[in-house]
Design brief:
CATH class of the largest domain: Alpha Beta
Radius of gyration: 21 Å
Largest sheet: 12 strands, mixed
Shape: globular
CATH architecture of the largest domain: 3-Layer(aba) Sandwich
Number of domains: 2
């Protein structure tokens, strides 16, 4: 029976960014030393299992037959959304999975602290920038799955330390009873126009996708533009809510006509028969496109069940693994030409139907900390 461990740690925002974006300096590298972080004992709330007074030596797994093996997966995806993939994998392989769910920064911190004796075998995250940072610290194994060959290069690390599995896009959602689709904004940058005064909501900077979106703006448009854009949004009456789901729900209820959120939150509102529509911003000929953010999977460096971990990565990238992933929230496969899952919602596009910028996630990982320094006070919920 699979054991499920819920991650319950909530870190302060500074610790979140350091864990997601910081790298540890090598001795004599001239790089600033990493800031002190909480100990593993502080980061994990569940008690440690009692040590076996006479432990058996751990058997080495064979790649031919892994049935009965064990696997520990750290997942930054919500548990109820991750379970269908885990269930399918267990059924397919006979490998027992222990699933620990938590926020990206919490799990990244644990992987850093457990470097000498890793507990996790697989890291599945919604934060590609954080995965990039862990890879640069040598905490993720370079593994190029044979099922990853068709994943576009922009959605996987060149060294194989992380691979994009499915994608989500950064969209505008509108309430069609308050904004006619023909009058909906076509660009994120239109939202500072006075005609949209007091009509826009977005999530706080505690949301990883908000930081990633702003890091992309910062690296493509510069600090001055990015800071002024957010200040202009706020001056135009934009509301800052705690989470992306709060934004979509406020739009669905008609409390706010327009929201900036991830596309899959629109799916829930649509399934509830709320009057909403999805806008893919900046799709014109000279526009930058709609940001697409991958969910990624990695083998943890030093994993105790390495063969099983690689098998999990292969499975997540296979058609059998993609189905339970894409069905849950209508996130889309990253391989062009692959159809959406069985829960396709009206208005959601496949990856090859979205004009998108090519993104360097290494660059974004480095920019996230600066984003918080510049815009943290502006994008605090309720401010």
């Amino acid at each position: 029976m699979r054991r499920t461990i819920l991650g319950t740690l909530y870190l302060m925002l500074a610790a979140i960014v350091l864990a997601a974006c910081g790298t540890q300096a090598a001795p004599g590298s001239g790089t600033d030393a990493a800031q002190p972080t909480p100990t593993a004992a502080q980061a994990v709330t569940e008690p440690e299992p009692e040590a076996d007074p006479d432990p058996e030596p751990e058997a080495t797994e064979g790649s031919a037959n892994l049935e009965g093996a064990e696997l520990v997966v750290y997942s930054a995806r919500k548990e109820d959304l991750m379970k269908p993939l885990v269930d399918a994998f267990e059924k397919e392989t006979g490998i027992e999975v222990t699933l620990k769910s938590g926020k990206p920064a919490e799990l990244q911190l644990l992987i850093q602290q457990e470097k000498a004796d890793p507990r996790a075998d697989v890291y599945f995250t919604t934060d590609a920038g954080g995965a990039q940072s862990l890879g640069e610290q040598g905490l993720l194994e370079a593994y190029k799955s044979p099922n990853a060959t068709k994943v576009p290069a922009e959605f996987k690390a060149a060294d194989g330390t992380w691979t994009g599995v499915i994608g989500r896009s950064r969209n505008i959602i509108i309430n069609t009873q308050r904004v006619k689709p023909a009058n909906a904004p076509k660009s994120m940058f239109e939202l500072t126009d006075p005609k949209y005064k007091d009509q826009v909501a977005l999530a706080s900077i505690e949301e990883g996708s908000v930081r990633l979106w702003l890091a992309w703006l910062l690296t493509t448009r510069g600090e001055d533009f990015t800071v002024q854009y957010i200040k202009d949004l706020k001056a135009n009456g934009a509301k800052v809510l705690a989470e992306n789901s709060d934004v979509a729900q406020a739009v669905g209820r008609g409390e706010v006509p327009i929201g900036i959120t991830n596309h899959y939150y629109y799916v829930f509102e649509k399934r509830d028969n709320n009057p909403v529509a999805l806008v893919y911003p900046d799709q014109g000929g000279n526009d930058p496109g709609t940001l697409v953010m991958p969910l990624t999977v990695s083998v943890v460096e030093g994993a105790k069940h390495e063969d099983a971990a690689k098998k999990f990565v292969d499975f997540a990238l296979s058609p059998a693994g993609q189905e339970p992933l894409t069905t849950q929230e209508n996130e889309f496969p990253l391989v062009p030409g692959v159809a959406l899952g069985s829960a396709k919602a009206e208005g959601v596009r496949t990856i090859d139907e979205i004009k998108r910028p090519k993104v360097d996630f290494k660059e974004l990982a480095e920019a996230e900390k600066r984003v918080v320094e510049l815009l943290g006070p502006e994008l605090t919920a309720g401010e």
